[in-house]
Structures are given as structure tokens and as C-alpha cells.
């Protein structure tokens, strides 16, 4: 969720009054850290995942499933091991936006050994079990992207009541009590986003039009206490939601990588960006919102709309008078510039020219300066009185205040002060899956892609306007099968040969080529498996694995992960979103009206719980999951690396010391 500063939160008015102070000192802090750490190198490739879980209470007698608002007490128990053993704890736990959410990560990052891939699923299983041990009877942890009836009727345990005329969110559907109560950051963000915008956020998601869905579909919001604001913001044939909780109350799967130096981090940031829409579509898992089946499969646009704090001037609805910029996107959106090559950054980047010049004058290069100056067009939206005045030589809270509230598909993360952590890149778009097997599969696939990119020098970079088009396509129903995505044709060289004199561009390596000839439209199946001269991502990973020494157990596990992703890409296995749609539309209580009732929701989450806890026997697994998962899910994952394999670590350490990087192709 970002920076969790302790202290007394300021009102929006007071926060706004200090905005220029935060930006000024945030930039000074960044410059100081950049100068100190720009030449830092020889960091080991560390990586780790973040999984967000929802706490769900099942009532078997009344056939209801509700969100359990006990995250604060659960976290107190989960975090005790870390407090008792700060240098040796297998899992780490942090709060998330809602009182029904907890976030778990491995206690220590994974490293450069191939055997580390075999630890991921086992650690995820441990996390799920640790949560379960903190819960009561008929309470379960679900790695669920979006709770189907969030904001619909009585959806929490204990019951909560929205307060449309008071509080932080002033939502018709979502009570402030549902926001995590153990830290003021979350309520403060909710209030300040609404107050900065000058009105409630308006989230509109197209509804799935079934046989009996009203046409046009438009709710009478006065029944929830609306006095006109929400009805004005609601669009016909859309599911309407009205506060930050509908977006930040979703769960996701994120992966962070530590690069060996800043240049490697910039390369990963750029080359992973075109994969963001592809992995979003592959992990699609959220087709239902506020008790209605939507016509989208992913959460991304819901979150983007839920934290859109731009004023009418910044959205281009009124001439600029009070504001400095017309801003094209929400705080939560896709990136707008690359960090290693400028020619593909074809979006008209909005950035603060004065901050840019300050960074240039400090000796920071053009691409990083524009990236940071773009982030700093935003106001801080949460500020604590104790953190207004800082030591810019030692602190970075003002920088992180704005950095951590730019929630983009990729995040470039400088090393924290006074730590041994290096330059990092965070991959943010993936939807969380129901099982540890799936989440481990996508995590390891992505980490393997970083190794393949750096080992073979792959070039995935395409114009950012095409990446944005891809992202819009990734939202759509059954995008993994029905949509085509722009992707680079020749990923082994920087440029394709020029084919005509017009539209010739100068590429980063000095050669000339036609930009539009470098990419084409492909299906996800083509991208994953290859087609014609395009090699495919899985074959490239398999080629890389052939070059590496891998123990038998890890090899077995990785093979199952790649087979699973292959089956999702080809359509042999369903995405979670398609599986949920099929479950709802085939339910005997479904009236072909796009409505997910309490009973349907209960039965759906009961099935999700059984799948998550792997209660099905292998021989019945395929039938019971209806092609969501492979017929046999049994990896060789383990909590520990065999001693014989650990000896390889010494060789890796020597390689790092000698070459300064793990990614040398050897």
C-alpha cells in the first residue's frame, strides 16, 4: 500500500498548504540519494512477491458469505513472530486498505539460486495457514481479487452502515468502518482524495448485458440516500461505485526485483512494461462488482477511477485557473515514459519544468529527470504533522510520499536510506489467483522473464501509446482469447531493418529503422508460445533453463508452472474471471439479469474456498474446478533448499564479486 508513516494526519486544507514544501524537499531528498547511490553496483538479484488476502466469514445455515472486519487483530498476531525474531521470520505481514485485508510477503527475499523458485509456493502455503490459524470457526483467508458483493447490502461481519453525508468516503454503499482502523493513512487518503477532487470519485464499469438485464441499466440511487451527486456521476448500462474502497479494497499479486545496479533496473523497468497488459489479461480474475456481473474481467480501471483525485481543471473540463496542469491520467494508471530509451515514449508527457531543470542542474540525466518531474505534478494526499520538517540528508519521506501515491503499472524504486537494499523495480498489474499454485506460477514466470531479458538482451519495448492500447484491451471480457495485442516482432535485436525511406527514426544504438515496422498484433497464445519467426516467451524460458543447472525438484515444479501458463494462454484452462462467469451464469438461482445474489455469492465463495484449500482429490480436481486448474496439481515445492544445492550459492557469490551481475549469460 505504500509508505506507512506514524503520526497525526493533517486535514486536506493543511496538507494542501504544505504541498509545495513536500515537493521541494522531496526532490532535494531524491537528488541526495541519487548522487550517493547512482554508482552502487554488485547487488545480488533478490526478488519477492506480495499477496493480498481477504478474510471471509461463511454462514452455512443462512448461506451467506461476508467480509470479516478483523484484520487489525489478525495482524497483531501475525506480526508477533517478526517482532520476536526480527532477523529470522519466514513471513512478513502488513496492513492493507480494508479491515478485511492483510498483505503477506516472504520473510526474506529470494536470491539467485534456481532452487529459490521451489520455495515460493511453499511459503505462500505457509502464509495462508498462518492467517487461518488466527481466524475463528467458518472464517477463511481467500486470495480473491474482488469480493463479488462488496458494497451490496449487508456484506460485512459485523454489519456496517454507510454514512453518505459524513465521514471520509461519504459513500452510499461502503462504510468508513470497512477501512482499516489500525492506521490513519487509509482513512486520510480516502478523505483527501474526495476533498481534493472536489466531489466523490465516480467509478463506472460496463455491465454484462444478459437476456433479462434491464436496458438501459440505471439504478435509482435515491434508495441508498443519494441527493443527486451520485446519480449525476452514474452512467447508463454501467455498475456505479463511489469511493476509494471499491478499488483499493481489491487484492492483487505484485513482484519486486532488485537489480545489480541502476542501469539494470532501468532496463527491467522498460522491458517489462509491454508485458503488463499481457500478464493482466492472463491473470484476469475480477468480473463481478457490487453484486453485478460486469463486462470487464480485471480490476485495473476500477482502482484507477477509485483514486482519481484530479480536479475538473486537471481533467480538462474547465480552463486552468487554480491548477498548473491538465493531467491525462489518474494517479493509478500506466506509466508515461521509459527510463532507458526515449524514442518509444510517444505519450505527451506532462511534467513540472522547474523540477525537471532542478534535477538536470544536479547532474541527473534527462530520462530520469523527466520521470521524477512527472511524478511530482501530483500533490501529496496524506501528510503527518510530525513529518513536515525533515533532514534532507538522511530522510526520504517527502520523496516517498509522492512516489508511493503514484500507483502505476511499473514502479522504479531507489534504494531506501541507510539500508543494504539496491535499485528495485516493482511489477504491479497482476490479479491475485485463488490458489498458491497459480500465484507461485505467475511469480516464477515473471522472475524467469527478467533473467531471460537480461541474459539474452531481449528487447520488448514498443511505443507507449501501443502499450496503453493493449492495457485497454486487457480489461475486456475474455481478452486472453478474444483480443490481439501489439508486441515487438524482433525481440532479439534493437531494430528491424528499414523497409522504406519514410518514417525513418534514429534508434538508441544509432541505427535507423521504421518504428511502425517493429511491432505487430499478436494473440496472447502467439506471444507465449511463438508464431512464425517470433520465438515465444515460454520457449525462450525453456532455452534459458537448459543452460542452467537445476535440481530435479525445482525442474519438476517449474515444468508444471510453465505448462499451466501455457494452458491458460491457449484457452485449455480458463482464467479465474471466465470460471467465475460460468459458475454464476450456470447457477440454478441465476435469473439471466446480471445479478449475483447472496446465495450465488455464498456458493461461489464456498467453491473458491475448497479450491484455495485444495480439498479436492486429484482424480476429481479437473471436473470440480471446471477447467480452472490442471487435473493434477502437485509440485515439489519445499520450505528449504537442499544442502547440496546451497553449495552453489558460494559460486554465485564469487560470480557476483567477479562480474558485478548475475545476468551475464553464463
Folded structure, characterized:
This protein has 666 residues and is of the alpha+beta class. Strands 1, 2, 3, 4, 5, 6, 9, 14 and 15 form a 9-stranded mixed beta sheet that branches. Helix 10 runs parallel beside helix 16, helix 12 (353-361) runs antiparallel to helix 13 (366-375) and helix 15 packs across helix 20. The longest helix has 21 residues, at 436-456. The two termini are 37 Å apart. Mean pLDDT is 92; it is low at 496-503 and 660-666.
Please give the structural blueprint.
Blueprint: H1 12-17, H2 19-37, E1 47-59, E2 64-68, H3 71-78, H4 80-84, E3 91-95, E4 101-106, H5 120-133, E5 139-142, E6 156-157, H6 184-197, E7 203-206, H7 229-233, E8 238-241, H8 245-248, E9 253-258, H9 262-272, H10 275-282, E10 288-289, E11 292-293, H11 300-306, E12 332-333, H12 353-361, H13 366-375, H14 397-403, E13 407-408, E14 410-413, E15 424-427, H15 436-456, H16 464-474, H17 479-482, E16 484-488, E17 504-506, E18 512-514, E19 519-523, H18 524-529, H19 537-547, H20 552-570, H21 576-585, H22 598-612, H23 618-625, H24 643-659
Parallel strand pairs: 2-6, 12-13
Antiparallel strand pairs: 1-2, 1-4, 1-5, 1-9, 3-4, 7-8, 9-15, 10-11, 14-15, 16-19, 17-18
Helix pairs in contact: 2-14, 5-15, 10-16, 12-13, 15-19, 15-20
